[in-house]
Amino acid sequence: MLRVALRVALLTCAIVLVLILILGFLFFGDQPVLGISLVTTVLVFFAVYTTMVLLLKKRLTRILEELDDLNQKRFFDHEPREYPDDDEIDDILRRLDETSFTIEKEFYRLKRMENYRKDFIGDLSHELKTPIFAIQGFVETLINGALEDPEVNREFLKKAMRNVSRLISLTNNLMEIAKLETGELKTTLSEIPLKSVILEVVENLQFKAEHEQVQLIVDDVDSDLMVLADRNQIRQVLINLIENAIKYNKPGGTVHIGTFMTPQQGNKKVTVYVRDTGIGIEAKHIPRITERFYRTDKSRARDKGGTGLGLAIVKHIIEAHNEQLHIESESNKGTTFSFTLQNAALISG
Ligand code: ADP
């Protein structure tokens, strides 16, 4: 029973009955008119009810089903919908579908964020625990007597200090990544001279490289090469990649930094590479290496002061530039990280 059709049919009947009775009494007197009026009214009732059911039932059922789906958070029906009647009910259906789509997107976005937050807090507490417990251990040992022992007191303080430094870099990296992920850190593109950015980073990391007995070599980079990029962010990418190339290298190893053009793309893109002769990354780790806190060898990474966030930051920055990051590696031979940038202009001179 379609209640709206019943209501419309009854209302129409009442109007028709009243009209026929008034007209009948006015023109023909009472007796024959009453019978005809009743028959007409019944016929009108069935005609209106049937028409309404034929026109509305299927479409109202569709609206109710879609609302039920929405209510139950069932979003799996992505078939393209049709609205053949182009009337107000089709308008309602169309808007319902649009609303459902918007709610679906928002629903999954919030779900993703919730999962992300849960993972992030889990990872973070795990990462914080190690240096904090280490500091606690060294300080306790010092308090319990090691402070007076000149053989070990400085050593323990230095170890505690190393863990404090790790906490500081972890906090800095976390702030950086949070800003990138929330979009607070905007990527502002401008024309930047790539060579001078590379040289500046290499100069700053020279001391670290010498300490690890690794040689930093800048290959031929055109001095006039300008790229469209965010200077600070690209500097950060280079720092993270070159630092890793030093950290995961071997004594006597090298790190080559350079650029090349991609003629297939009409030289529109410049590829920047950082190639090391280090320990390499096994193929199975490569797809996950840019996930935050993912490490191939946790203890080695921690010994080297790694936070597990360096490559996640690199990936975010490269994605924010709409560019590509590539990783090629061979165990025990070395790794090449490369990323593309947009060639802003090639000034001769
Ligand atoms: P971390 O702070 O631990 O270095 P990253 O995000 O920078 O964190 O790197 C993630 C992991 O990827 C490292 O722990 C290391 O296992 C691996 N890795 C990164 N760069 C290199 C490299 N150049 N050679 C070998 N392994 C690397």
Task: Write up what this structure looks like.
With 349 residues, the protein is of the alpha+beta class. It has three domains: 3-104, no CATH class; 119-182, Helix Hairpins (Orthogonal Bundle), CATH 1.10.287; 190-346, Histidine kinase-like ATPase, C-terminal domain (Heat Shock Protein 90). It has eight helices and seven strands; from the N terminus they run ααααβαββαββααββ. Strands 1, 2, 3, 4, 5, 6 and 7 form a seven-stranded mixed sheet that branches. A hairpin with a 7-residue loop joins strand 4 and strand 5. It is elongated. The N and C termini lie far apart (86 Å). The relative contact order is 0.08. Residues 240, 244-245, 248, 276, 278-281, 289, 294-297, 301, 306-312, 335 line the site of adenosine-5'-diphosphate.
Level-1 CATH class name of the largest domain: Alpha Beta
Radius of gyration: 36 Å
One letter per element, helices H and strands E, the order comes to HHHHEHEEHEEHHEE
- Ligands (ions, cofactors included): adenosine-5'-diphosphate
Which structural category do the helix and sheet elements fall into? alpha+beta
CATH architecture label of the largest domain? 2-Layer Sandwich
Beta-strand portion reads 5-15%
Tally of structural domains: 3
CATH topology name of the largest domain: Heat Shock Protein 90
Task: Give the helix level as a range of percent.
Answer: 55-70%
- Average pLDDT, rounded to a whole number, is 89
Can you summarize the main beta sheet? Answer: 7 strands, mixed
Q: What is the global morphology?
A: elongated
